[in-house]
Model the fold of this input.
Amino acid sequence: MIGRGAVGRAVWPVTRPEEATTLGPPMPLLVQKFGGTSVGSVERIREVAKRVVGAQRHGNQLVVVVSAMAGETDRLLALAREVARTPDERERDVLLATGEQVTVALLAMAIRDLGASAISFLGHQISVATDSAFGKARIRRVDAAPVLRVLNDGHIVIAAGFQGVDRDGNITTLGRGGSDTTAVALAAALGAARCEIYTDVEGVFTSDPRLCPRARKLERISYDEMLELASLGAKVLQTRAVEFAKRYQVPLEVRSSFSTQEGTAVVAEDRNMEEVVVAGVTHDQDQAKITVFGVPDRPGLAARIFGPIARANIVVDMIIQTASADGKTGLSFTVHRSDYDKALGLVRGMAGEIGSAGVTGETGIAKVSIVGLGMRSHAGVAARMFEELSREGINIQMITTSEIKISIAIDAKYTELAVRVLHDAFVDAESPEADRS
Amino acid sequence: MIGRGAVGRAVWPVTRPEEATTLGPPMPLLVQKFGGTSVGSVERIREVAKRVVGAQRHGNQLVVVVSAMAGETDRLLALAREVARTPDERERDVLLATGEQVTVALLAMAIRDLGASAISFLGHQISVATDSAFGKARIRRVDAAPVLRVLNDGHIVIAAGFQGVDRDGNITTLGRGGSDTTAVALAAALGAARCEIYTDVEGVFTSDPRLCPRARKLERISYDEMLELASLGAKVLQTRAVEFAKRYQVPLEVRSSFSTQEGTAVVAEDRNMEEVVVAGVTHDQDQAKITVFGVPDRPGLAARIFGPIARANIVVDMIIQTASADGKTGLSFTVHRSDYDKALGLVRGMAGEIGSAGVTGETGIAKVSIVGLGMRSHAGVAARMFEELSREGINIQMITTSEIKISIAIDAKYTELAVRVLHDAFVDAESPEADRS
Done:
């Protein structure tokens, strides 16, 4: 809308220019990303500053990507909802982008206070060029040149995660967890040796330890498995971040910002990994289901329903179409809880047009999944999964599968039970190789 | 430092292009500025939104400049001081700029909630191009073209005050009260019909009503008088804002955001104004004094002292040099309290080099001034001022004068007494024309 014209000279991906290595062997470039809890207070920001300066003194070039301080994004969203019934999406991004802006400034100050030199960069300064889907923008290009210049002058770069700029100069945000994507995209654009994701957990676990006491930390996991885990609701890493990492082969490490323990390496797969059938069991309780029933069974029905939903930038997850009877059919699908009202409104709006007898919706749906490279070579995993759940009287509402995962939708009240049963049956039952150590 | 190259196509000042007036008479363009108290809460932001939408419905184009919500800048500064002993100035500006960013987004949302259309602009989006003096940057150019485009599409423009962008793409801030300057600079660049400064007082008063119960609101005041008042500590308008307004003949109005009463118009002077000798009495209690004594009296002394101070971007206000005796001289000057430590450090650092016998400093200094166009044509005003103060036993430490004002530095504890005595003697004693009605 602002119309400042194109954003700089955009290069994506770039390999590191030769000038970066002037004398002696090049210094390894690390991208470190710290989430909201890791920078949740002034004390924690000072701890992060110490860790970053330590890594520089060990001979690394450092690019540090940070999120908003824990709670800040929610505080800002609450202000937005107080001021307007339906906050404008463009302005909500302008508002939310201040969260990371505060953190980069404070962290750069804290690092300078320790005698090192740091310079902050906002999304439009890097620049992280995105499309214009406010609230869930996708990165199109990263122009790493300004960052490289500053790195080669010996500074630590502190980059605001989560935010970008569209072609017209509008501020955009990448959606919850978008800082991971910023970190990986920067690591790819800069040709970083590694991208370290610091968070409040020790790494990637075989399941959520709060639900499943026998869950344990994985030392290594493949991009594909991590991708399934991320997209299935394991809140450790954002899906798009893992996609980027896989596409540009960026070695990732998920680790805790509160300890010095090794975390979980997310890397390209190797032969040993296939020996483990199920690497992890995940769940996502923030699902909602919408059902359209009694629709005349004509070709193009799905397109007519999902076209408007896709245009509204709503991600549809599981879909089932019921068998046709008397020339009528039905269709159920799940969306994230936060998109439920919007999706339901859209579908209700088109109910008359498609001749539907009715539209129903329900929240309180959970998705539970098992993920593992080994599924590709081990038959009967699905059958065994359904059997385990059936034995506990858990009704399966929907099923989707991929090469390396099986997901089911169930009533959210059974989430914990389902996760434990599947972890016991698949993960705990496996041999010590499950640890992949 | 970031080196993104020049900032857009910069035009300063611009007259409004012909395209702005398509059909019928052009709509008057108003710039309205709301300070921190006026947008200090969600409720107040919604009140401002109503006022702005009302003004648009009365047939005006609207550019609204806002400050950070009251208290926000102090909250951010406190965070900065917690995280670093001496917060880096570049990063402090990155941090502080979030204050206005939050307000523009919330106000734009609130306006949209009322059914009108508003788009927010940050300093770098407008763009407000400044020099690189972080914390007290000066505006060099305003590129009003993006704002005009959005106005002509029927939107209300919400612009972040106080912030700009330097040649290298770094965020800068204009210093306390800088939003006034943003508003006037935008009004000048856009050729606005008027720039309205909404604040928490009813207008410009003959003195501070808290100190001087007989102070009353002025209906009109000249740019020059306002300039002296602003620079002398009347906190209604920032000096640079008035300078801009005078240079580009922008009609200003200072008024309350909590009432619909007319405020004070700040306009070019006319003949009637000279009939009033003293328009107002002001005070500033945030002064500090530094004295260098026992210095060998050689040419270039002042330059050697004030050169480094100017380079540190510290504004020196009153200066007196004592008469030379035995080849030794001394020099006293005042600075703002916030620059005192820095200035004292600089002067102490050069004491040896200039051969000074010592440097002393004291805070707790107040400046009291009388201002009026009429001083130009009325003799003996200074003598009468000194006489009034002497009668109350107030010791005058320094004196400076301009064509239309006389300022004295005194011990801060006498501020209130001095203001009342001078208001009684000069303002109250004048005929009803003083009201300039």
Remarks:
- The domain at 27-200 of chain A is CATH 3.40.1160.10 (Carbamate kinase).
